[in-house]
Amino acid sequence: MRCQQIVWTLAAGCAFLLPGAIGQAEAQTVFGLPAGEPAAVQGRVITPKDVARIRSTGQIAISPDGSEIAYTLSVPGEPGGDRNGPAWAELHVVSFDGTRDRPFITGEVNVSHLRWSPDGAYVSYLARREGDDHTSIYAIPAESGESVRLYGHETSVLAFDWRPDGRAIAFVAIEAVPEDLAELRGLGFNQEIYEEDWLSRRLYVLELPNGPEGPAGAVRTVEVPGQPWSVAWDPDGRRLLTDLSPTPLVDDRYMYRRPHVIDASSGEVLAAIENPGKLGAFDWSPDGRTIALISAVDINDPREGRLMVVPAAGGALRDLLPGLEGHVESFAFVARDRLVYLAGIGVGSRLGRVKTDGGDAEILFESSDPVLAGLSVDARGRFAALAAESPSFPREVFAMRVDRAGEPNRLTDANAWLAEIRFARQEIVRWTAEDGLEIEGLLIHPLDGSVNAPTVVVAHGGPESHFKNGWLTTYSRPGQMSAARGYAVFYPNYRGSTGRGVAFSKADQADGAGAEFDDVLAGVEYLIERGVADPDRVGITGGSYGGYFTAWAATRHSQRFAAGVMSVGISNQLSKTGTSDIPREMELVHWLSNPYENPDLFLERSPIMYVNNAQTPLLIMHGKEDPRVNPGQSRELYRGIKMQTDTPVRLVLYPGEGHGNRRAAARYDYTLRLLRWFDWFLKEGKTELPPWKVDYELKPDVM
What sign for the dihedral angle of Cα 627, 633, 636, 642? Predict the structure, then answer.
């Protein structure tokens, strides 16, 4: 096989060879350029409009024989254009060697839940297409042809899986509204009984006597003792593996989902697996005797991240990587007794292999550039599709063999125009906290190389998440946009973050905004001592828990921060518990108590209690339909600062948006307001509010 060699040079110092007119054995990732050196001094800077049009890989699924990789491509709308909605999710298929990348389904569509038919002849997926009342199951031939609807249920299909013989599909859907209730709603009786009047999720089996070519056969309900979320057939097609929660409420889904082995014919529960806390992915071994899962270590573990196995008949769980100082994010069986796994390790990633008895653990590939973020393995355990990103490109499709150590090859380039962009240097940084703990983060230097620069701290949410050394520029994270304006942009992974093992992610429990925030302050001092940051021009931004950090910075630590932009953040820990959809999760994995038992702690750690100290100009932005952090949190802080101080404060609410903005116009508006707020107060030194209107620089034909 011969193909053209193409080289991508990264701002962070690596070059990737995409398979081209070289032999397959020669097509490999190449490393070794000086870390942090920009590829070229020529080029233009990235703009908010550029960020608004970035495409990225979503789901990936490799074909059973490993020759093709199906993936979804997120395609945003143009701000001010005809379509102001969330990004579309298109279906594309790229060959394993990268020589052929084909768009299968494009345009106004949202494709999800990719599954190859067992024989590899079709790519199946979920979508709501023209003529559909709800999301349905579709399949499209892998070589050529049009999509066919395999089945449309009376409500939207939420998840599905093929029986190994290709003659049936198990799927999950929410039950239909009962006729009597629908009639009452039609008469105006549309009251909501909070957390009680939910509709149950159901597990079904659809017979397909002729496989994907149809027509669909009978549908039957499989009664299960709980609310199913996903489903997987065993290799023999006789049992179903599904995760059940007591109710469909978010708290129960987060904290109390447990895998169950179900007889596919009778619905009898054959085994109930008692994972001790949060649950991630799970799957059967090829011989059906073992189940692997990603789980928390206990009910107080903030994040599922341990790779465990258990006999399919039930029994004790075994942690395959007990000493891992990281978090497992995905896995796949490559033999009946062997798995490959993908883990976040610090700001990087690791692709490893381990036996189901915990032996023969080995690293196949480990890197902080690129950072791997997705995994799918073929039926014989030889080839893997991967999603990966870098400081100079968002998530793309990669591939490599997993039957031996190697390096991934990049297959796609969804944003070829990024080759025009001049990127600022992105650096992995480490500093020491007050108690001696080493903390890690990322720093994007000013593009112009200036020192003592205005600096923006970006605080991540969760707190059970972390920044990786990948693409760090989005509508709400200024990254390269601010670097191009002369800022340093700092992304700290404070204690409580993931990526460094269970003990580190638990290190902030019952101490919200305590030592974890001190880690951020220590990081800022580190940047000041290095001459990177101007001590008088430090700003902070973040969403959700990062919004909480921003509110805390603007009130309790106002003397350090000269500007703040808070998104969907927390200001009152007491009222937040009573208005959120995850009160039990907050109690179990964050605070180890609740405000009804320990009100003094929750009030002491609430920014609202320190509004009299607020000297930091604060821009507050929030989706009006946020179920996680009620918009009242932003209103409370806004009102407190406005009533008690003369400090500039502004509240921007986004109708139709929730816990983060999804629509093109709302995202673009957010970006422009964030950038202007920091320019206004950090660079220009203004003391009054900027105008509330924003210049969107739209094309004349959309005004």
Answer: negative
Looking at residue 85, what is its pLDDT?
A: 86
Distance CA 4, CA 23 (A): 10
d(CA 149, CA 82): 28
Spatial distance between the Cα atoms of 622 and 673, rounded to a whole number of angstroms? 13
Helix (H, G, I), strand (E, B) or coil at 202: strand
CA dihedral sign, ordered 105, 111, 114, 119: negative
Q: Which residues pair with 339 in a beta bridge?
A: 333, 354
Whether omega for the bond prior to residue 215 falls within 30 degrees of 0, making it cis, is yes
What would the 3-class secondary structure string for 33-89 be? Answer: CCCCCCCCCCCECCCHHHHHCCCEEEEEEECCCCCEEEEEEEECCCCCCCCCCCCEE
Token duo for residue 577? 């518990």
- Amino acid of residue 18: L
Look at residue 358 and tell me if it is in a domain: no
Q: How many other C-beta atoms are found inside a 10 Å radius of the C-beta of residue 225?
A: 11
Q: How far is CA 522 from CA 339, 433, 504, 551, 554, in A?
A: 40, 6, 17, 18, 17
Instruction: Extract the runs of DSSP E, i.e. beta strands, from 175-273.
Output: 201-207, 219-222, 227-233, 239-245, 258-263, 269-272
- pLDDT tens digits for range 65-98: 999 999 999 999 999 887 788 999 999 999 999 9
Within a domain: 283 = no
- Whether 463 and 410 have beta carbons less than 8 Å apart is answered as no
What pLDDT sits at residue 83? 76
Buried/exposed 423-448: b ≥16 CB within 10 Å, e otherwise: bbbbbbbebebeeeeebbbbbbbbbe
Cα–Cα distance, 453 to 3 (Å, whole number): 45
Total domains present in the chain: 1
Could you tell me if residue 199 is inside a domain? no
| 614: CATH | 3.40.50.1820
Helical axes 545-555 vs 515-529, angle rounded to 10°: 70
Which regions in the chain score pLDDT beneath 70?
1-41, 699-703
Which residue range(s) make up the domain with 563? 425-702
In a domain, 273, yes or no: no
What is the structure's pLDDT at 455?
Answer: 99
User: In the prediction, which pLDDT does 14 show?
Assistant: 36
Q: Distance between CA atoms of 349 and 493, rounded to whole angstroms?
A: 15
